[in-house]
Amino acid sequence: MPDTANTAMQRHWNEVAGPRWVSRAGLQEARNIEVAHLLRREAASRPGERVLDIGCGTGATAIPFAAAVAPGGQVTGVDIAEPMLAQARQNIAKAGAGNITLVLADAQVHRFAPDSFDLLISRFGVMFFADPVAAFTNLHAGLRQGGRLCMAVWASLAENVHWKIPFDIAVKHLGAPAATDPHEPGPMAFRDPAYLRDILAKAGFAEIDIAPQGFKIIGDTARSEAEHAAMFGPAWRLMEEKNAPDAARQAITAETEAAFAPYLTPEGLRLPGTVLIARAKRL
Asked: How many other C-beta atoms can be found within 10 angstroms of the C-beta atom of residue 250?
């Protein structure tokens, strides 16, 4: 991929996380559907608007936004991972969403047409930039004057039991992780609202508002969610860091499954979580 500033994340999402995500695409999108609805409500898109979906993945946000901006509107989805976009193409074709364009690119450096979007959106797609100020400065340039940004990012580990429970179990088995920069690229890079606010301000955004919103992770079974935790997120990263043997991974997964069981309801697994909804404008 030309013009890539995030080579480590490009490799991770094309070779590891992207294929894993696609292999579990139905479960993956179902578990975060409440956040997709939340983002759609908070962004308040209108017919005729031009939307850029950053880190669009398999199209779970691009498709409903494409319906919301019709007639006359257009959604551009950008993602660094070809496996995710391949799945997105299938999902878009199935939905019959003819007003979506997909771009394989690194949004930190890709040259979007200046002043070309009315709305920038993202659901968990912006926390992986090597240089977030540079990335949001680049995205700001693609937004028209008066245009809006609305995105969902993860809040802290403590506010998201689907990660905290398996991580605590993994620490018990493997020991604490090595000290790292709390703002290094990763799912919770923007968990500190003050840090995110500073990034957006330095990138030129104004009228910045960042607020927590509760929601539920929607799982099928305690087992499937425990398996997910062993493939993504803080517990998985700790297991990789410690080069955990298969027996330890299996023990962590089994213990996580048992810890998730109290969250089962007649409708399935429901795990309380928190996201930050960040809104801003280009004046």
From this structure: 12
Residue 250 contacts by C-beta under 8 Å, 6 or more apart in sequence?
A: none
Q: What is the pTM of this model?
A: 0.92
| CATH of range 7-157+183-218+273-281; options 3.40.50.150, 3.40.50.1220, 3.10.20.30, 3.40.630.30 | 3.40.50.150
Mean pLDDT computed over 239-247:
96
Residue bearing tokens 């850029």: 52
Q: Where are the beta strands (DSSP E) in the chain?
A: 50-54, 74-79, 100-104, 117-123, 143-154, 206-219, 264-265, 268-281
> Cis ω on the peptide bond leading into residue 71 (within 30° of 0)?
yes
Mean pLDDT across the chain: 93
Least confident of 20-34, 105-119, 156-170, 230-244: 20-34
Confidence (pLDDT) at 12 = 80
- Report yes or no: 274 and 214 within 8 Å, Cβ to Cβ: yes
Largest CA distance in the chain: 56
Contact (Cβ atoms closer than 8 angstroms) between residue 239 and residue 247: no
pLDDT given at position 257:
97
Phi first, then psi: give them for residue 158, nearest 5 degrees: -60, -25
